[in-house]
Specification:
This protein is an alpha/beta fold. The chain is built from 17 helices and 12 strands. Helix 5 (85-97) links the parallel strand 3 and strand 4 (102-105). Helix 9 (181-201) packs across helix 15. Mean pLDDT is 85; it is low at 368-380.
Length: 381
């Protein structure tokens, strides 16, 4: 989702020829040839990741072999990496050994990495395009060639209307269970119970359930017969849904940032295996929040529910509070405006494309530097 606008911009400039990717439908629609559709392999947490590796072990091995073969035979002019350190650190090292430059566009959040992983990304990437000032400074402190570009979601959501004031109108509540398999399975029953309790208190409330990808859509369709509350199901149109919502109940992730940009009050949820929860609590000594709006400002803007707190009654209570307590609601809307200000204004995709083009034209060289700039139009990203 974040890489596709960058590919569109590079293609508009005539800066790339063919594009090959590991990813999902958004990259395919942007014109990239998919070596492997990695959507089914998405996971969050230690237990989920281990289960995903076991279930898709052959696919992961085959994907890395395909990447290695691509690097040897076609020598891409540039490798663009997006988040996902579990997969991309290996690909980054592979590219560096072959002298192929890399742009780490959207580097992983530093709190979930070890120091050696941060140092590895900083030193092995040709350039890093960071979305927040804090992340940019962290990677810069470890010696990375970093540029803070702001967040591309600002460009994607620039035309989205701000939610209207409630003023006694029936509220529209967005339900975002996430994109990963385990997120959807774990959070759908919680969202169902919360919706039922909210409707009991606000009988006129309307509910919109948004599916992030095809696999999530199938799981949601299978779960909907268990719902007692009428709900509208919308597929892959999260931005349109956000512009209609007065409240969002969502998994933690990019959706929280998009909601902050649009200005939708929300409650964020995060549920992982209890062992990972212990590790997260140790990490929280340094980083106190997991919801991106809170993390970016390092203060509590959005209510966070984690693991045992993620229940239907607790979620409904938090949601009803934001619908009924005008003072709390207005304070959150102001806090979300502060998040938008912290993201650096629009133009992130343009700045990322400038950085990618500088690498393609040889103005930023890979280290070590056996790579030599090739003709740009014939480039392979």
């Amino acid at each position: 989702m974040l890489a596709a606008p960058l590919l569109h911009e590079l293609r508009r400039r005539g800066a790339v020829g063919s594009m090959t990717a590991l990813g999902g439908s958004a990259l395919r629609e942007a014109g990239a040839h998919l070596l492997t559709d990695t959507t089914p392999m998405s996971s969050v947490g230690v237990a989920s990741s281990c289960r995903s590796v076991i279930s898709h072990c052959a696919t992961v091995i085959r994907a890395h072999r395909q990447v290695a073969r691509l690097f040897r035979r076609q020598r891409p002019s540039l490798v663009i990496l997006v988040d996902n350190p579990g997969q991309n650190l290996r690909i980054m090292s592979m590219a560096r050994r072959m002298g192929i430059p890399t742009l780490y566009y959207v580097p992983p959040e530093a709190w979930c990495l070890t120091r050696w992983q941060i140092a590895r990304i900083a030193r092995q990437s040709t350039a890093i395009a960071a979305l927040s000032q804090g992340e940019a400074q962290t990677y810069r402190d470890y010696g990375g060639n970093v540029r803070w570009i702001g967040h591309p979601a600002l460009d994607l959501l620039a035309s989205s209307p701000r939610p209207h004031e409630l003023n006694g109108n029936p509220p529209t509540i967005g339900l975002f269970p996430g994109s990963r398999r385990d997120e959807v399975i774990d959070l759908l029953p919680v969202l169902r119970d919360a919706a039922r309790l909210i409707q009991q208190a606000e009988s006129a409330a309307r509910f919109v359930l948004c599916s992030a990808n095809d696999s999530a859509h199938k799981r949601i369709l299978a779960h909907l017969p268990t719902w007692e509350v009428p709900v509208e199901l919308v597929h892959r149109q999260s931005h349109a849904v956000l512009s209609r919502c007065d409240l969002l109940l969502t998994c933690s992730g990019t959706a929280t940032l998009e909601a902050a940009i649009v200005g939708v009050p929300m409650v964020a949820m995060y549920r992982v295996h209890h062992l990972l929860d212990r590790l997260i609590r140790l990490a929280m000594v340094r980083y106190s929040y997991f919801a991106l709006p809170n993390y970016l400002l390092n203060r509590p803007i959005v209510p966070e529910l984690c693991n045992r707190q993620v229940t239907g009654p607790r979620l409904a209570a938090e949601g009803l509070s934001l619908l009924r307590d005008a003072t709390r609601r207005q304070a959150m809307i102001q806090g979300l405006a502060d998040v938008r200000d912290a993201l650096g204004g629009g133009g992130a995709v343009i700045r990322a494309a400038d950085l990618a083009q500088n690498i393609l034209q040889g103005e930023i060289a890979a280290e070590p530097a056996p790579w030599v700039g090739v003709e740009v139009v014939a480039g392979h990203v």
